Amino acid sequence: MTASVFFGCTFIAFGPAIALFLFTIAREPLRVIFLIAGAFFWLVSLLLSSLVWFISVQISNKESAAQQKGLLIFGVVLSVLLQETFRFGYYKLLKKANEGLLALSQEETMPISIRQLAYVSGLGFGFMSGAFSVVNILADSVGPGTVGIHGDSQHYFLSSAFMTMAIILLHMFWGVVFFDACEKQRWWAVAAVVISHLIVSCLTFQNPEYIASLVPTYVILFLMGVWAFYSAGGSLRNLKLCLTCKDKDFLLANHRPR
Fold it and tell me: Which pTM value belongs to this model?
């Protein structure tokens, strides 16, 4: 039973992201490099936020439950702000890198488009975020022990897997919307990404009331997915052509930089 829970939750959490990686990124070495770099940027943001939170805890009153809860909320907000700051820094770095690649390339077009960079970097952020969110939970799912034996929710592992999947996909959508907003200097859209990220992160404080956290998160996931679709140049027409396999160039795997 523990093995089935482990593999089931793993595939729920990482299945869609792994499929996207295999079909749209794995065949292109340049995309793989940018994905790994994006994951590294997220990891550095986590390191900085963890360091600040650790220092804050050490100098605080550990016997005060209210103060410790406040520090936890502070740590979550700080982590989100640092992640989005590093996303912006990564955008700036990728712009410079793309210009350098264009200068070295003999072609007149960019070797990789800004939309592809947004998608790949967002997925890199999501992979690393998901790994740190659920790896310890998956390790516990192997056993020993029985979830809910003391009256707690038996849906802990399943809910964590679905939340992780949502976070990974949200990072991908946030990356697309964020980069497009920076390109067009729509700073209100950048603010919307940051605010939605804060909302999703703060929704986890509703746990173990998993419905109160998962339902709003998936509503935001759907809305951000639609926004990212149109930001990437999508429309109802080319979506219909894609679903009927009549527009091969619509797929990111065959998308050519313009």
Answer: 0.86
How many Cα atoms within 13 Å fall on the side-chain side of residue 70? 9
Residue reference for tokens 């986590």: 46
CA separation for the pair 67, 45 (Å, rounded): 24
The answer on pLDDT for 104 being more than 80 is no
- Average pLDDT (236-257) is 61
CA distance 84 to 245: 36
Instruction: DSSP letter for 106, please.
Output: S
Contact 38, 124 (CB under 8 A): yes
Q: CA-to-CA distance for 207 and 88, rounded, in angstroms? A: 30
The string of pLDDT tens digits covering residues 52-67 is 888 888 888 777 778 8
Does the pLDDT value for residue 1 go beyond 80? no
CB-based contacts of 41: which residues, under 8 Å, 6+ apart?
86, 87, 89, 90, 121, 124, 125
Between CA 181 and CA 191 the distance in angstroms is: 10
Is 82 within 8 Å of 53 (Cβ atoms)?
no
Q: Please tell me the distance from the alpha carbon of residue 223 to that of residue 246, in angstroms, as a whole number.
A: 26
